[in-house]
Amino acid sequence: MNYRKDTDVYKLYLVTDSGMLPEGTTLFSQVEKAVKAGITLVQIREKDSDTKDFIAEALEVKKLCNEYKVPLIINDRIDVALAIGADGVHVGQDDMPIPMVRDLVGPDMIIGWSVGKTSEVQQLAEWGPDYVDYIGIGTLFPTETKKNSKKVPMGPQGAIRILDALQEYKADWCRTVGIGGLHAPNIPRVLYQCTSSDGKRALDGISLVSDIMASPTADVATKRLLEFLDDTTYSYLGDLNLQSNDEPTSHDFHDVLAQVAKNRPLVQHVTNKVHQNFGANVTLALGASPIMSEIESEVGELCRIPNAALLLNTGSVAPLSMLKTAVAAYNEVTRPIVFDPVGYSATTTRRDLNDALLSYGQYACIKGNSGEILGLAGLNSSSMKGVDATSTASDAELIQSATRIVAYRYKTIAVCTGETDYICDGTVGGRRFISTGSGIGPDDLDMYYVQDGHIPMMGDITASGCSLGSTIASLVGGLGPDGSVFNAVVAAIVLYKSAGRLAADGCDGSGSFHVRLIDNLYKLTRVNNPDTWSAVLKKI
Ligand code: 3NM
Ligand code: MG
After folding, report:
1. Which DSSP symbol is given to 170?
2. Cα–Cα distance between 234 and 228 in angstroms, integer?
């Protein structure tokens, strides 16, 4: 059978490795369990086998695959693929050049190629539809399976670049699977995040080795993975509503604050030294409880405290492994994380740290100043001077585009702070745009802004931007079941700006502004009458 035109076979793609088999299993028995459980494509990848053994193994698997109508791909060994009449071959960048492979295997075999760079996509587009049928996009995450790999993990953002290149070079025939470090816990997130920027292309499937090959119950592992692949929503925030259906009103803000007062959220701060004391006081003023913990071993307990939320401010110097553990823990229990990418484009070190953290998890909200948001959107990396916002990046339209791009790429609520705060909801209800894509792109997302005139005093105290992060985390964390995350983010911004305005008007200087900001957050929260707040929300 010729599977070349069959675009449905890429959903769940098993690549074998006989070096990790659990005791009492064989390569064949593991593949058999996976095939019977519904795997859609199999690749035999044996790096250390003798040819004779490889062929014997491949023939046995081929018989099984034929019976279940699952195509069989052979890694690298064109000769073996031809000899046994496999359905396809998979080659890497250091293997035989694709045009030679096609000459050898003829027009009917599937050819797969490992791709990690956009220039490789350009190349396959130049060859056209007769050559590469699918690509393995990787390495997505660090993996124990492929030792000595020269590839640097690209994360979901790297996969998005490849999907964008496929759209740019119009390689519409080419199917895609993600590979490398994919396991049940991160697959739903990866499927959710990996969408081309025009919303028209997502991954066609997932390819993996250890999650099945090293499993003592390969059939159970396969079925679990298929369930994730069939589920088109990603509930990373449990029962909370991601989107607001209508434009949030003062009634909604009142409702958010009432929930916070009732639920008294615990807001774990991992933040920079300058922010720690002020952020804790802002959190208390809002009726929430701060904990400024960077202890890796207690994250798993903290995130399970009712109404816990995490503020991750990357101006901190917490060890990367602590940060990674924290992100995984909060994601696992579906509690919100607010991410503040401090100084994103200021130095390479900061950009790499932020990119790594962004690739590890899913965030409820990403909040930054214009330099940070422009940097994250890839629109500007030179407008940073230190970690503070600069006034050079004042082009409102550019900032709006950047906010939309960040919201869309990271499938998050993006907030860009400044004299005007911009807010864009990129969650699209937690729904995935799998395979055909919805066609929804960044420009289709609703944009809001909050204004209350210029409050220059905000720039005269430390950590005023960081403490908006504390405020967002407090309000999102305080939501009860079914609360709206978007409404909470917007409420936090309107509240914070209104308190800033009250604090600035008639204050003597930056010292008293500091104190008055806390006083006014305290008062506005307890009075809870958002009709009187001065800052206004508008839709663009
Ligand atoms: N190819 P696991 S990563 C076979 O990046 C392979 O091209 C990769 O194994 C690439 O699912 C990889 O156990 C190993 O992480 C994937
Ligand atoms: Mg190879």
Report:
1. T
2. 9
d(CA 175, CA 540): 37
CB atoms under 10 Å from CB of 356, counted, come to 15
Query: Could you tell me if the CB of 186 is within 6 A of ligand 1?
Result: no
ipTM of the complex: 0.95
Contact call for residues 499 and 521 (beta carbons, < 8 A): yes
Encoding tokens for residue 281?
Answer: 């006081």
The domain limits of the chain are 7-230, 250-432+439-539
Q: Which residue of 47, 134, 149 sits with most ligand 1 atoms within 8 Å of its CB, as the best mutation to test the pocket?
A: 149
Structural domain 7-230, CATH architecture = Alpha-Beta Barrel (3.20)
Cα–ligand 2 centroid distance for 491 (angstroms) = 52
Q: How many CB atoms lie within 10 A of CB 355?
A: 17
> What secondary structure does DSSP assign to 318-367, as a single string?
--HHHHHHHHHHHHHTT--EEEE-TTTTT-HHHHHHHHHHHHH---SEEE
Ligand 1 contact, 215 CB (< 6 A)? no
- Bridge partners (DSSP) of residue 414 are 366, 424
Q: Does ligand 1 come within 6 angstroms of the Cβ of 445?
A: no
Cβ atoms of 212 and 34 closer than 8 Å: yes
Mutation choice for ligand 1 from 146, 190, 222, CB with most ligand atoms inside 8 A: 146
Ligand 1 atom 12: the closest Cα is on which residue?
Answer: 180
Instruction: Tell whether pTM > 0.90.
Output: yes
Which of 12, 18, 139 has most ligand 1 atoms within 8 Å of its beta carbon, as the pocket-test mutant? 139
Q: Ligand 1, residue 181: give the atom nearest the CA.
A: 15
Active site residues: 466
Tell me the CA–centroid distance for residue 95 and ligand 2, in Å: 6
pLDDT tens over the chain, length 540 residues: 789 988 899 999 999 999 999 999 999 999 999 999 999 999 999 888 899 999 999 999 999 999 999 999 999 999 999 999 999 999 999 999 999 999 999 999 999 999 999 999 999 999 999 999 999 999 999 999 987 788 899 999 999 999 999 999 999 999 999 999 999 999 999 999 999 998 899 999 999 999 999 999 999 999 999 999 998 889 899 889 887 778 999 999 999 999 999 999 999 999 999 999 999 999 999 999 999 999 999 999 999 999 999 999 998 778 999 999 999 999 999 999 999 999 998 899 999 999 999 999 999 999 999 999 999 999 864 544 444 444 444 588 999 999 999 999 999 999 999 999 999 999 988 888 655 567 888 999 999 999 998 899 999 999 999 999 999 999 999 999 999 999 999 999 999 999 999 999 989 999 999 999 999 999 999 999 999 999 999 999
Give the atom of ligand 1 at the shortest distance from the alpha carbon of 143: 15
Homologous superfamily in CATH for domain 250-432+439-539: Ribokinase (3.40.1190.20)
